[in-house]
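Give me structure tokens for this 223-residue protein.
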Amino acid sequence: MATPLDLEEQEQLDQIKHFWKTYGNLISWLLIAILGSYAAWNGYQYWERTQATKAAALYDEVERAAASGDVARVKRSLADMKDKFGATQFAQQSALLAAKTLQAQGKSDAAREALSWVANGASDKAYRDIARLRLAALQLDAKAYDDALKQLTQEFTPAMVGLAADLRGDVLQARGQTAEAIAAYQQAWQKLVETPDYRRLVQAKLNALGVEPDTAVVSETQK
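Here you go.
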């Protein structure tokens, strides 16, 4: 004869069976989804770490190539970096370093190409802005004024706005647009408050054009 305890246990067991029959498939799929997501996340983290390690090693190769001044090796190592790890910051750093080396070796076209790649596709805004400034400077040297202004009239991060305005003034002055150059230098003067050494250079440019920057600031304030 079944005891009350046996009946109670049987009832609980029946309830569990009924619950599992009703919700078992749903619970199973939820567990599979959760465990699958966890496994995928761990796999992605491992892949990222592996990619970063490989990219760092290849960046060392770019550095060694740059230090040796071997143009062919620089181009080859940069091409490998862009092909295999183009989305990483190591690739952006490599392109900036390669551009500097290529320019020093007289390979201006290759330097501009490397900088354009960073300027147009860098995920990091700081690298993007550095590339834009360097590219515009090379275009100014090549008298490609329209191309330089195209770079310098794009959006820059606040820390780079003053530098971009100063270089834009140089381009405009080279084009003979003195009034526009003064306006650009005035903007640079106002934006470079926290870099007094560079600000003095901008002041010298304004003074050479017969303009006192302090006066310019006052007149802007009074508007």
